[in-house]
């Protein structure tokens, strides 16, 4: 029997999903389970990697059952994952040595200052495309080596293994210890040009090479799965934002997408050469197909967008479901002069200020929960505007259209406001789960389920488009107020 489907596992920040796609790129079935967010102290965020693995097995089982198929009907499975989240596990037992440290975690701030003195931020940026920020995986690994008893000695003996979530899942599925170039490019340990672990950086970070995974292409067969997916090739791995770029079929230089999930991430394909940013963006690997040169991207990473709506729901109790935020925000005509800057883990692009913390600015007795809800949605758009301004300053051609995806794009008010503040058309993919779609596309390419990139481009469809209607003078006034609110977040942490 010829396999008719490809599956994608999306191991995200708040949940794990499995989606089954057919040859037309349509969703056949899906399953999803949330996992715990562990906050041991302010600024620390952890996950239980064993809980995540259990959830992944459950969603795979549920998605296959919902599709009415067994693993023999799958041509391949691809993996996409929350990037930078760091796991170390015992090579012999397969058990994590500690909770995973999540990308949002800020505990490595003091270590980054030490690294700046010893190595220098400019040198690191030139080598890796990254800025010195608590976001990335290498310093999280160093923290574990320094703080888990005996771990450094065990790492030097090769008894423990490091990986981001893609490596953890590939190892659990196949027993292979590998990662792909997109995830490796987020560690602060890989040279962007050689696409290999950099001995100088390993030495500066004091990371033993013996614990690192092999770096492979994004679309390539890594091994064959056991267990629930027995016999299925595991054939792709992409960090979630690169997977969304791939799923949006942004294969040409100058094409860009923004994914609105827990955080939001705008990636611009820059082609076969890395482009250094002078305006607070990251240079990263977009993807690499087996046998082909890599593609690079500029990225603007925003830490808090969808999770701000969750905060409004879970911490303040102003809404009972995330979907209610739009109705509440539409109950008022504007934000009433109120601005929410969600620097919960510092500010990411283009500011990169780990000392920042969130503020609600412009409060008066007039402000209602409707104004707060509107300011929460507007925060996602204004943060995107800051990234787009930086991207336009770095690239040769100004952004003329933005493809969007992710759960928040179902919010029509947010999409309207986004088009207003960017003053460019905002186009939503018909399949909003483009992160999973990108992982599926890459896996399918690796095994010949789809023949080439042109075939994938032909399948892409939009289902909605928004254009700017805001008066330019109002846009500039609101932007000025937003920037004032951002300034109020700075220098909070000593």
Protein architecture, described:
- The chain is an alpha+beta fold and 494 residues long.
- It has a domain at 5-240: Nucleotidyltransferase, domain 5 (2-Layer Sandwich), CATH 3.30.420.40.
- Helices cover 35% and strands 23% of the residues.
- The chain has a seven-stranded mixed β-sheet with strand order 17-18-16-15-21-22-23. A six-stranded mixed β-sheet has the order 3-2-1-5-14-13, with helices on both faces.
- α9 (240-247) crosses α14 and α12 (369-394) packs across α13 (412-422).
- The protein is globular, with a radius of gyration of 22 Å.
- The N and C termini lie far apart (63 Å).
- Number of H/I helices: 16
Q: Could you name the CATH homologous superfamily of the domain at 5-240?
A: ATPase, nucleotide binding domain
Helix amount: 25-40%
Average pLDDT for all residues: 93
Class per helix and strand makeup: alpha+beta
Characterize this entry briefly.
By secondary structure, the chain is of the alpha+beta class.
Keywords for this entry:
single chain; 494 residues; alpha+beta; Nucleotidyltransferase, domain 5; 7-stranded mixed β-sheet; 6-stranded mixed β-sheet; 23 strands; 35% helix; Carb_kinase_FGGY_CS; EC 2.7.1.30; glycerol kinase activity; transferase; Glycerol kinase
Describe how the helices and strands are arranged.
Elements: E1 5-11, E2 15-21, E3 27-34, E4 46-47, H1 49-67, E5 74-81, E6 86-90, E7 100-101, H2 109-118, H3 121-128, H4 137-147, H5 151-156, E8 160-164, H6 165-174, E9 178-180, H7 181-184, E10 190-191, E11 196-197, H8 199-205, E12 214-216, E13 219-224, E14 233-239, H9 240-247, E15 256-260, E16 264-271, E17 282-287, E18 295-302, H10 306-314, H11 324-329, E19 339-341, E20 359-361, H12 369-394, E21 402-405, H13 412-422, E22 426-429, H14 434-447, H15 453-459, E23 462-466, H16 472-487
Parallel strand pairs: 1-5, 5-14, 9-12, 15-21, 21-22
Antiparallel strand pairs: 1-2, 2-3, 4-7, 6-8, 10-11, 13-14, 15-16, 16-18, 17-18, 19-20, 22-23
Helix pairs in contact: 9-14, 10-12, 12-13
């Amino acid at each position: 029997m010829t396999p008719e489907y490809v599956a994608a596992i999306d191991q995200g920040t708040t949940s794990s999903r499995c989606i089954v796609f057919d040859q037309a790129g349509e969703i056949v079935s899906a399953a999803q389970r949330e996992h715990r967010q562990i906050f041991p102290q302010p600024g620390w965020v952890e996950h239980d990697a064993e809980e995540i693995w259990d959830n992944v097995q459950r969603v795979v089982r549920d998605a296959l059952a919902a599709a009415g198929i067994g693993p023999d009907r799958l041509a391949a499975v691809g993996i996409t994952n929350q990037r930078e989240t760091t796991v170390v596990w015992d090579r012999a037992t397969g058990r994590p040595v500690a909770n995973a440290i999540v990308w949002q975690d800020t505990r490595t701030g003091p270590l980054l200052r030490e690294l700046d003195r010893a190595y220098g931020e400019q040198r690191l940026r030139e080598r890796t495309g990254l800025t010195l920020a608590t976001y990335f995986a290498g310093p999280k690994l160093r923290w574990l080596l320094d703080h888990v008893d005996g771990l450094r000695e065990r790492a030097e003996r090769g008894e423990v293994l490091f990986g981001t979530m893609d490596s953890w899942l590939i190892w659990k599925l196949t027993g292979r210890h590998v990662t792909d170039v997109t995830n490796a490019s987020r560690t602060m340990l890989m040279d962007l040009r050689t696409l290999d672990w950099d001995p100088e950086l390993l030495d500066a970070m004091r990371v033993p090479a013996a614990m690192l995974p092999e770096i492979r292409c994004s679309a390539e067969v890594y091994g064959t799965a056991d267990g629930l997916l027995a016999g299925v090739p595991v054939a792709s791995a992409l960090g979630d934002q690169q997977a969304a770029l791939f799923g949006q079929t942004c294969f040409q230089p100058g094409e860009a997408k923004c994914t609105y999930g827990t955080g939001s991430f705008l990636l611009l394909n820059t082609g076969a050469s890395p482009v250094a940013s002078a305006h607070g963006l990251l240079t990263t690997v977009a993807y690499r197909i087996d046998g082909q040169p890599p593609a690079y991207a500029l990225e603007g990473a925003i830490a808090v967008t969808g999770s701000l709506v969750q905060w409004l729901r879970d911490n303040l109790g102003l809404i009972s479901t995330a979907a209610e935020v739009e109705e509440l925000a539409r109950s008022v005509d504007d934000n009433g002069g109120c601005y929410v800057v969600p620097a919960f883990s510092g500010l990411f692009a283009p500011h990169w200020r780990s000392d920042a913390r969130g503020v609600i600015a412009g409060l008066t007795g007039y402000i209602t929960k409707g104004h707060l809800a509107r300011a929460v949605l507007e925060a996602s758009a204004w943060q995107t505007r800051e990234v787009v301004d930086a991207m336009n300053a770095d690239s040769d051609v100004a952004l003329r259209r933005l493809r969007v995806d992710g759960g928040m794009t179902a919010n029509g008010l947010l999409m309207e406001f986004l088009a207003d503040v960017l003053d460019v058309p905002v186009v939503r993919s018909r399949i909003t789960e483009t992160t999973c779609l990108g992982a599926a596309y890459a896996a399918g390419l690796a095994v010949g389920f789809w023949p080439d990139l042109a075939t994938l481009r032909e399948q892409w469809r939009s289902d909605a488009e928004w254009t700017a209607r805001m008066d330019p003078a109002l846009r500039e006034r609101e932007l000025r107020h937003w920037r004032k609110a951002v300034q109020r977040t700075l220098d909070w942490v000593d």
